[in-house]
């Protein structure tokens, strides 16, 4: 792997992904995401099908606000699940 490709791969690993579902659930992925959710007292359950932590949709604002305050990259998308 070239140095540029390695740097790009490392950069994408630092990005938090928040997927907002159509009903009451959102899914969160990212480095040390479980510690962040614990620190914010966000209820969570690991969803093996999605490969992410599922959280209540109403807590997405708390998660994204914390990530932005800490200067972390976050990508928010809507999903049909």
List the helices and strands and how they pair.
Blueprint: H1 3-13, E1 16-20, E2 25-29, H2 33-39, E3 45-47, E4 52-56, H3 60-69, E5 74-78
Parallel strand pairs: 1-5
Antiparallel strand pairs: 1-2, 2-4, 3-4
CATH topology: MutS, DNA mismatch repair protein, domain I
Find the count of extended strands (DSSP E, 2+ residues).
Answer: 5
Give start-end ranges of low-pLDDT stretches.
Answer: none
Kindly estimate the percentage of residues that lie in beta strands according to DSSP.
Answer: 25-35%
CATH class: Alpha Beta
Please provide the ordered H/E string of secondary-structure elements: HEEHEEHE
| Number of structurally distinct domains | 1
Give the overall pLDDT as a whole number: 88
Distance between the termini: 35 Å
Q: Which class of secondary structure composition applies to the elements?
A: alpha+beta
Q: In words, what does this structure look like?
A:
With 81 residues, the protein is an alpha+beta fold. The chain has a single domain, classed as MutS, DNA mismatch repair protein, domain I, CATH 3.40.1170. The chain is built from three helices and five strands, in the order αββαββαβ. It has a five-stranded mixed β-sheet, with helices on one face. The radius of gyration is 13 Å and the shape is globular. It starts with a helix and ends with a strand. The mean pLDDT is 88.
In short:
This protein has 81 residues and is α+β, with helices and mostly antiparallel strands. Helices cover 35% and strands 28% of the residues.
